[in-house]
Write a structure and sequence with these properties.
Chain B: InterPro entries: Spore_GerAB (IPR004761). Chain B: It is found in: Membrane. The complex is a heterotrimer of chains A (386), B (360) and C (535). Helices cover 34% and strands 31% of the residues of chain A. In chain A, a hairpin with a 6-residue loop joins strand 1 and strand 2 (47-54). Chain A has helices at residues 2-18, 83-94, 110-114, 118-126, 143-148, 157-171, 179-187, 230-239, 304-333, 340-347, 349-356, 359-362; strands spanning 30-40, 47-54, 73-80, 97-99, 105-109, 135-139, 194-202, 209-220, 223-228, 247-252, 258-276, 279-295, 367-378. In chain A, strands 1, 2, 3, 4, 5, 6, 7, 8 and 9 form a nine-stranded mixed beta sheet that branches. Chain A has a four-stranded mixed beta sheet with strand order 10-11-12-13, with helices on both faces. Chain A is built from twelve helices and 13 strands. Chain C folds into three domains: 39-151, no CATH class; 181-295, no CATH class; 315-469, no CATH class. The termini of chain C are far apart. The chains are: A alpha/beta (386), B mainly alpha (360), C alpha+beta (535). Chains in contact: A-B, A-C, B-C.
Chain lengths: 386, 360, 535
């Protein structure tokens, strides 16, 4: 027994001796990537990886705000033919090994996105460092511009961009998908992914450069095929049941189109395919409830008739948004970013077998019915106008 | 011969340990490959079938209350065929222990890519040897603890991933009829029957034989539901196209979980889950060959066999040259090794009924 | 090389053991020498055996009308002088002449009629006489008698019943055991007035002749356990028992395990509670620490106060203690594993904070942790060993100044200080497990820094296997957790109210397991009953 204990003790001692190699990497020797950008270099045909890496010395925990020159990140970039190769060059530059474990954002340049993102995403799906939750953004222009942009508000610019995107989600302007959601759609049969587009714009008044999320990038499989503007993006959120508790801005035609702001408290969209005379018809049923937050103008909300008119008006507005979006997606971009194919598949498996082969041709010509029912639940603290 | 006794409660936990064991890591891919969207139905059905096989085993146990599977095989189907079948059983489990160790080592590569596997392998076998030396009672007590831990952790894993699931991925159910489900059974029944084959060795240890049926049915129900839920969650999470492309879909799920946009990296939970199941699975597969071999050779005590057999296992685990070969072994062992063995149990039962063999 | 040395050492120890085994026969002193009729012979004998003892008092005297010669022997300071003067010497020299005829004067008549002492017995062998003298009793030798009288006068200075230093309570009895076994047994008797309470006694140690008390309740304690305790105690063959720790190490089930399989306590109420649960207690003369067997793992988390204060708070503090055990053993390892292997598990804001504080630390996390933990152990050891006043100063210097300066100087990171300090404080919450907690931290830290979380979980499984394999006098150590005994969970990690504690622990008691009647839940008299009373 004592002999055995001595043996185990020796074994543990041997661990002390061998400790220090293998997989142990001290925090000081790790470079944490917070955002990644991928571009395609037109001249050489190679890819350019740009990384935003945290610099611990510059993070003063006491004063987390402020930015500009004091940004707590280092921007490094390298050119190569694969992601891994560029990482090796970057490792030399940093003198630390870069880790994707805390990567939050993956920005893909417009050019790279047009040529297909799968070759780049392969690395992110294969690595053990698990960045599947990083959100994908498509930049108008080069991705490196987005990464090099510095925020006035946050020490880590990527934090600002992340907040921006999630903030946009709350206001329901555009929708963002992460690497995992992207991959599920790309590897699926019919549905194509989409995500927010980002660009740097010069603010006319202050002259500063600002990061803005304005449009939605629509893909066909893994290739960027076009953009949906803000109106259409909203329509797409309605179709994809992602509107949530967003805001509707509309006018009241009888009252000089004064602005009305409606904040949704809940909304729900259902895709119901129907078979009519051997033809597939997609019905989009939208139901929602909202509160009036602001009403500029002389409208008294004191009768059911006024409320009813208002509801009807808002519903038409939403219907228009949806139809605009459908037009863009079906006629111009010809990509199923809504999951119509999957909806038909699960409801009419038999019919789906016939359509599946030529879905790409079938989708643009599909008839879509839109039914919107929006209710007003609350008018705020006022009934009559002041 | 072996005086170790376990309680009905521990028996239930042992059924669970064998039923969920290391399987939760590998079950999703074959289930989806064979049965597509309906993989989860296959899993559920497979556990039902395995439970039926288990019931015949209990009937056999009633006929030979003091003997294990290896001991009554020669009595029922004749001395030489029985001995050969027993040896097949022992060697199959022996090799499968090595296979499970290898699967565990491969999974460990996710966390420790540069650490030499042999160290991990030695550490795992220290646990194996230690608990085997302490006896089956000690193992069944630890099984109680780790089975419960395992269930709780799988539950937590499923709970945390719920917000990210897309249940529409599961529709349409039975798109191509029942054939894919039946086809899926071919790989799923062996997975489910592993625990029954393990039970064939420990059944005589149960102190109250009457409770065996209850323990078996509850155990198979819980593990069946858990694994069905796990496969369904896998499909709902990544769809039937992305899931089979991955090496370990459950690991993928765990690394994706994020709570309150802050807490991520649930590999820690997964690692705990995986290690406790790996420990259980290794033991579940290692106990039958050790005890079986001792009984096959008519030895009084199985303890001297432990260390030599462990060394063989460590060596065998290094045989497959890469992870693709490991997966190949996994697809080969089910139809050609475990399936015949699990069908042997009902066969032996039928023979014993016809020959009216009863020692009780 | 090291192995060879170790084996040599073990062989040497074995040899010493054999030697020791052969010793007792020669060392046990005079064997069966009868007391002779000649008074002078007896005197010589005793003077021979107990020579050069300054505290030995031999008083020769004559009494009665015939001037019978006699002497008494006792040891100064160990016996009650007034009792000897009044009740032995006074009775014999003053009163015997008045009430006895000389013919009647014999050892029996003196024993029965003269000595007004309660504990008097006849002895006929010399070694009995010696033993009782050394025990503080007085021995009376009479001329022409081949027997002597042993008179219980033992009374020595001992500490009063005071508060326990190690087990303090806010609510509940403040009495603690003392060094005297008689006082201790009386403390228990005062709590359990049951005729079934048995106090058996034996002596262990051929030099110290230490009194050992085995205490149990006849119908509650498992006979097999009582027999096993006695068997193990009897097999102890050593020259000295100075503290119950000696006994503990001699009768443990798993002598090489660092986990305690024998419970100890200093307070009689806790001791009594354990006896009432069907355990067997062992009292050792000369120490206030009493032992109880069988000892289960969950007992480490129970304190006397749990049972006196409300059950909800007690349950919460028990769960906290359970958490504290895990924290104190695994936290340094987990911290090192997370920072050096799995930084993805640390939430980003926390990671940023750790990164900034660790930026300029010269050591790897493992070395840092080791340094601090060893430093802490040193400070703690110093705090315990030093006199009270100085000890406090040491801990202030250690904790405040050293820690602060170390952080400012950039030798260690503040996070590591938090981790090690938390570990240390948590370790104090579960005093019975101090040994394993202190010892396990270091190997787990090494495993964690070599294999990351895998090392942590591996060691957890290893420890669980070890714990589960232990038994304490037949009871499974981890009961009621593994094997799961649902009935016993009521008093394991939580404590249910007293009116739900219907049975004693199943792992220990075997019969009379019911300890209270059904339906004891207190309820206000219902309205109906009140109405009935009025009419």
């Amino acid at each position: 027994m004592i002999k055995r204990m001595a043996f185990i003790l020796l074994l543990i001692m041997s661990f002390i001796v061998v400790t220090g190699c293998w997989d142990r990497v001290e925090l000081n020797d790790r470079a944490f990537i917070i955002a990644t950008g991928i571009d395609k270099d037109q001249e050489s045909g190679k890819m350019v990886t740009t990384l935003q890496v945290i610099v611990p010395e510059k993070i003063d925990t006491a004063t987390k705000k402020g930015g500009g020159e004091n940004a707590a990140v280092q921007i490094v970039s390298a050119k190569g033919s694969t992601v891994y190769e560029t990482l090796q060059y970057i490792k030399f530059e940093l003198m630390k090994k870069p880790y994707f474990q805390h990567n939050r954002i993956l920005v893909i340049g417009e050019q790279a996105a047009k040529e297909g993102v799968t070759p780049y995403l392969n690395f992110f799906m294969r690595t053990r460092e698990g960045p599947e939750r990083s959100i994908i953004l498509v930049s108008k222009g080069n991705a490196s511009e987005i990464l090099r942009w510095q925020s006035d508000v946050k020490k880590i610019p990527a934090d600002y961009i992340e907040g921006l995107v999630h903030g946009e989600d709350i206001f329901s302007m555009t929708s963002t998908e992460n690497i995992h959601e992207f991959m599920v759609k790309i590897s699926g049969n019919t549905t194509s992914p989409y995500t927010s587009g980002i660009e740097i714009r010069k603010n006319e008044e202050s002259g500063k450069e600002e990061a803005k999320v304005t449009e939605t990038a629509a893909f066909k499989k893994d290739k960027l095929v076009g953009w949906l503007n803000l109106e259409e993006s909203k329509g797409m959120q309605w179709i994809n049941n992602e509107f949530g508790t967003g805001i509707i801005e509309t006018g009241y035609p009888e009252m000089n189109n004064e602005n009305i702001i409606l904040k949704m408290i809940k909304s729900r969209t259902e895709l119901k395919p129907k078979l009519k005379d051997g033809k597939m018809i997609m019905t989009i049923e939208v139901k929602g409830e909202g509160n009036i937050e602001e009403l500029k103008g002389n409208v008294a909300l004191n009768s059911q008739k006024v409320i009813g008119n208002l509801e009807k008006n808002i519903s038409t507005e939403v219907k228009n948004e949806i139809e605009n979006c459908l037009k863009q997606a079906q006629k111009t971009l010809k990509t199923d970013i809504f999951g119509f194919g999957e909806a038909i598949h699960s409801k009419y498996p038999k019919e789906w077998e016939k359509i599946e082969g030529h879905w790409d041709d079938y989708f643009p010509g599909m008839d879509v019915e839109v039914n919107v029912k929006i209710k007003i639940r609350n008018t705020g603290m006022l009934i009559e106008p002041i | 011969m072996y005086k170790e006794k376990i309680s009905a409660n521990q028996a239930l936990m042992l059924v669970l340990a064998g039923g969920v064991g290391n399987i939760f890591v590998v079950i999703a891919v074959p289930a989806i490959k064979d049965a597509g969207r309906d993989g989860w139905i296959s899993v559920l059905l497979a556990y039902g079938i395995a439970a039926l096989i288990g019931l015949t085993l209990i009937q056999l146990g009633k006929r030979f209350p003091d003997k294990t599977f290896v001991q009554y095989l020669p009595i029922v189907i004749g001395k030489i065929p029985g001995k050969i079948a027993g040896l097949f059983y022992i060697i199959a489990f022996w090799v499968m222990t090595a296979h499970i160790l290898r699967v565990a080592l491969e999974l460990m590569k996710f966390f420790l890519p540069e650490t030499p596997s042999v160290y991990v392998s030695i550490l795992m076998s220290i646990l194996m040897v230690y608990v085997m030396k302490k006896g089956f009672e000690v193992f069944s007590r630890t099984a109680e603890f780790f089975s419960i831990t395992m269930i709780v952790l799988i539950f937590i894993l499923i709970l945390f991933i719920l917000p990210d699931l897309e249940w529409a991925n599961l529709a349409p159910v039975m798109e191509n009829g029942v054939m894919p489900v039946i086809k899926g059974l071919r790989t799923q029944v062996p997975y489910a029957a592993e625990t029954i084959l393990f039970m064939a060795i420990w059944l005589p240890c149960l102190n109250d034989g009457k409770k065996a049926t209850k323990a078996l049915l509850i155990g198979m129900l819980i593990s069946g539901i858990l694994l069905t839920a796990l496969v369904a969650v896998n499909i709902a999470f990544a769809g039937i196209e992305l899931t089979p492309k991955q090496l370990y879909p459950v690991f993928y799920i765990s690394s994706y979980i994020q709570i309150a946009n802050t807490f991520a990296g649930f590999e820690a939970i997964f690692m705990t889950l995986w290690l406790s199941t790996a420990y259980l699975a290794l033991q579940v597969f290692f106990y039958p060959p050790v005890v079986g071999l001792a009984q096959w050779l008519n030895l009084k005590d199985y303890k001297p066999l432990i260390i030599p057999m462990t060394i063989v296992i460590i060596a065998l685990a290094t045989v497959p040259s890469n992870v693709i070969e490991v997966l190949k072994v996994d697809t080969l062992k089910n139809p050609y090794v475990i399936l015949p063995l699990s069908l042997l149990i009902p066969f032996v039962w039928v023979v014993s009924v016809i020959r009216k063999l009863d020692e009780s | 090389m090291i192995l060879q040395k170790l084996i040599k050492k073990i062989k040497f120890q074995k040899m010493m053991k054999d030697k020791k085994n052969s010793e007792p026969k020669d060392e046990k002193g005079p064997q069966s020498i009868s007391i002779s009729k000649n008074l002078q012979d007896n005197l010589h004998h005793i003077q021979n055996i107990l020579s050069s003892n300054a505290d030995l008092i031999i008083r020769k005297f004559t009494f009665g009308k015939n001037k019978t010669e006699a002497f008494i022997i006792n040891i100064d300071g160990m016996s009650a002088a007034t009792a000897i003067n009044e009740n032995i010497l006074g009775a014999l020299m003053r009163d015997v002449g008045k009430s006895f005829d000389d013919k009647e004067l014999s050892i029996d008549s003196i024993k029965d009629g003269a000595l007004n002492m309660n504990d008097v017995s006849k002895i006929s062998y010399m070694e009995e006489a010696i033993e009782s003298i050394l025990n503080g009793d007085t021995v009376l030798f009479l001329d022409e008698e081949n027997m002597a009288l042993q008179i219980g006068t033992s009374a020595w200075e001992h500490r009063n019943v005071e508060q326990s230093a190690s087990e303090r309570v806010v609510r509940g009895s403040h009495e603690a055991f003392t060094e005297s076994i008689r006082v201790n047994t009386s403390l228990i008797r005062r709590r359990i007035k049951d005729p079934n309470l048995k106090i058996e006694q034996m002596k262990i140690g051929w030099r110290t002749r230490t009194t050992i008390g085995i205490i149990y309740i006849h119908n509650l304690a498992n006979d097999k356990i009582v027999e096993e305790v006695k068997r193990r105690l009897k097999s102890i063959d050593t020259d000295a028992i100075l503290e119950s720790g000696y006994i503990e190490e001699f009768i443990e089930d798993a002598p090489l395990s660092i986990f305690p399989t024998i419970g100890n306590t200093e307070v009689p109420d806790k001791f009594s509670a354990k006896i009432l649960e069907g355990r067997v207690g062992i009292l050792v003369d000369g120490t206030p620490t009493a032992l109880t067997v069988p000892f289960l793992f969950v007992e480490c988390f129970q304190t006397a106060e749990d049972y006196y204060s409300g059950s909800f708070l007690s349950s919460q503090s028990r769960l906290l203690r359970f958490l504290a055990l895990h924290v104190s053993v695994f936290l340094p390892g987990i911290y090192v594993a997370l920072t050096t292997f799995h930084p993805n598990i640390i939430p980003k804001p926390l990671l940023l904070t750790i990164l900034t504080t660790r930026e300029n630390i010269p050591f790897p996390a493992l070395v840092e942790a080791f340094l601090l933990m060893i430093m802490f152990e040193l400070i703690r050891e110093a705090g315990i060993r030093m006199p009270l006043a100085v000890g406090q100063a040491v801990s202030i210097v250690g904790a405040l100044i050293l820690g602060d300066v170390a952080v400012n100087a950039g030798v260690v990171s503040p996070f590591m200080i938090i981790v090690v300090a938390l570990t240390a404080i948590m370790g104090f919450l579960i005093l019975p497990l101090t040994d394993p907690v202190t010892l396990l931290k270091f190997p787990i830290l090494i495993l964690a820094s070599t294999f990351g979380l895998f090392g942590i979980i591996w060691s957890y499984i290893f420890i669980v296997i070890h714990l589960v394999s232990l038994r304490s006098f037949g009871a499974p150590y981890m009961s009621p957790l593994m094997p799961l005994t649902l009935k016993d969970l009521k008093d394991a990690l939580i404590r249910v109210p007293w009116w739900l504690m219907k049975t004693r622990p199943q792992a220990i008691s075997w019969r009379n397991s019911l300890r209270e009647k059904e339906d004891l839940k207190p309820e206000p008299p219902s309205k109906k009953t009140v109405g009935d009373n009025k009419s």
